[in-house]
Protein: MoaD/ThiS family protein
Organism: Streptomyces tendae
Amino acid sequence: MAKVTVRYWAAAKAAAGVAEEPYDAATLAEALDAVRERHPGELTRVLLRCSFLVDGDPVGTRGHETVRLADGGTVEVLPPFAGG
């Protein structure tokens, strides 16, 4: 398992109530499962609309279970932003 930092932006930050927090996960899917477990409710709904960056690289349409996380890495949770 990698130790990663999940950073929340805009609506995700508001729903989580924090700007960032640590997680232990091997894949993006595992990290997001842990986020949903820690923050049931609004953040779970916000995540459905989000895009993700892992260590600065867009995840795009790749399956979250195929996106491996590196120890010390960062997952950025990006909700849609107004105006583009």
About this structure: The first strand starts at residue 2 and ends at 8. The chain has a mean pLDDT of 95.
